[in-house]
Amino acid sequence: MNLLSSACLAVLLTLAPTAFAAAPKKAAKPEPVKTVRVVLQTEKGEIELELDETHAPKTVRNFLHYVDGGFFEGGVFHRTVTPDNQPNNKVKIEVIQGGINPAREAELLPPIPLERTNETGLKHKDGAISMARDTPDSAVSDFFICVGDQPELDHGGKRNPDGQGFGAFGRVVKGMDVVRAIQQAPAEGQKLTPPIKILRATRKP
Asked: How far is the CA of 38 from the CAs of 19, 191, 200, in angstroms?
């Protein structure tokens, strides 16, 4: 082997680790978020919801059971929480709360496990829809919608003494003007008087 050939071979051996290395793998694309649209028809107008089935599957499945079963026909928004009607709470929030037709309460499913915001990544931002509850894992069918950002309702927040927060599972995509109109409707304390009727709730194709 002459000197030129030896030199060429040495160069090839030097380059081999980089020249023939496997191309770096491309980062996997995040899975698309699976959502379901639901329209709440109320006597004050329509509220369109986008439910996040990917991040809060148990809560969304529970809510859709009541939607598909017609439980919200005859349901009501019965509670409004404003800065002026919660004198005994140091941590103030702003929400409206609704539920199914009271005549069908005997048909309720068992309570669902709390899907905490530190696990789902879904926060109580303006327009977020979330489950009402007492103790953790006690939510059934009542829900609330946030008016403005409500971080004290997230996991670690101080509104609930247990610090576990509430189970956000979607957001309002149309109709926040209706939400605010419901919040400002006549009330005795936090009880809407009269309650605002939910005429029906249906999935949007």
From this structure: 55, 25, 10
Pairwise CA distance, residues 114 & 75, whole Å = 23
* 165-201 pLDDT per residue, tens: 999 999 999 999 999 999 999 999 999 999 999 999 9
Mapping DSSP onto H, E and C, the string for the chain reads CCHHHHHHHHHHHHHHHHHCCCCCCCCCCCCCCCEEEEEEEECCEEEEEEEECCCCHHHHHHHHHHHHCCCCCCEEEEEEECCCCCCCCCCCCCEEEEECCHHHHHHCCCCECCCCHHHHCCCCCCCEEEECCCCCCCECCCEEEECCCCHHHCCCCCCCCCCCCCEEEEEEEECHHHHHHHHCCCEECCEEEEEEEEEEEEECC
Using CB atoms within 10 Å of the CB of residue 151, give its burial: 0 to 12 exposed, 13 to 18 middle, 19+ buried: middle
Rounded to whole angstroms, how far apart are CA atoms 155 and 126? 16
Q: Which residue has the tokens 């026909």?
A: 73
Please state the pTM of the whole predicted model: 0.86
pLDDT digits (tens, 9 = 90+) for 50-94: 999 999 999 999 999 999 999 999 999 999 999 999 999 999 999
Tokens of 114: 């709390």
CA atoms within a 13 Å half-sphere pointing along the CA-CB vector of 53: 10
